Amino acid sequence: MQNKSTPSLLGGKHTVVEFLSRTPEKVSSVFIEKQKKGKDVSQIIGLCQAAGIRYQYIPGRKFAEFALKNHQGFALRVFPKGYQHMDQLLDQARTADLPLILVLDQVQDEGNLGALARSLFALGGAGIVLPKNRTATPGRQAQQSAAGALSELPLARETNLARLVRGVREKGFYTCYAGIGSECHNVFDHEIDWPILLVLGNEEKGVRPGIVKACDAGLTIPMSRRFDSLNVAQAGAMLMVELLRKKLSGVRFASGKSDM
Description:
- 36% of the residues lie in helices and 20% in strands.
- It has helices spanning 13-22, 39-51, 60-66, 86-95, 110-123, 140-146, 161-170, 209-214, 232-248, and strands spanning 8-11, 27-33, 54-58, 74-78, 100-105, 127-131, 155-158, 174-178, 185-186, 196-201, 217-220.
- It has a seven-stranded parallel beta sheet, sandwiched between helices. A four-stranded mixed beta sheet has the order 1-4-2-3.
- Helix 5 links the parallel strand 5 (100-105) and strand 6.
- It is elongated, with a radius of gyration of 19 Å.
C-alpha cells in the first residue's frame, strides 16, 4: 500500500526553509548537522519552534547515510499527505464505522505508532492525534509497521493534549485513557458513550497526570496473571477491539459521563 503519501527525506537550507515557511503541516521532523552554527541555524530553529515541529542535531555521518546531494547540513522529513485540522478529524469521527480517535501521549517508538495505525484503520477508526513534541513521527519504521495504513488514516497534531481533551469533551466526545491504576474501569463492563477519544500513554510513563485529570474515565484490561503492563500497541489493539464489539452490539450509554 505504499504510495505518494509515504514520507520522504529532502535536503538543503532553502528547501527546509521553504517547507517550514509555506507548508509546515507537511513536515514531520527537521535534521541539523551538529557542526552547523550561525543565522541559518537560528532561522530554521525559529521556524520549527513557531510551527511546533521537532528538530534534532545529528552527526555528519548520518547525513552521509541519508545520501542527499547538496544538503548544506540541513534536511527534513516530509509527510506529503499532511496533518489534518482537528475540527475535520472530529467531524469524521462522528460518522466513522468505529467512532474513535486515538491520542498518543508521547509514544516514542515509530513501530508502535505504525502498529496502532494499522489496527485502528482495520477496525474502522477515525484517526490519530500526536503531540507536536516528544513523539514518534510517521517515518520509515512507522510506515513499515503500518503496512500502508498511515497513508490512508487521518493524522492531526496538537500542542497541548490536556487542553485538547477538555475541548473535545465539551463537544460531546467520551474521553478516556488507558491505565493500570485502581481508579481505572474494566473495559469489558464499563459503560461508555459515542464518539470516543482514547488516550494511550508513553511506553514507560503512561499517560501524563494532567491528561488523566482531563478525561472522563480510565480504562484497563484485566489480567489473570501478575504482570505490570502490556506493550502500548498490544494494549491499544485490545481496547479498540472491545470498543468495536460494544459498537457492533449496539451498546450506547448516554449517562456514561461523569463530572470531574
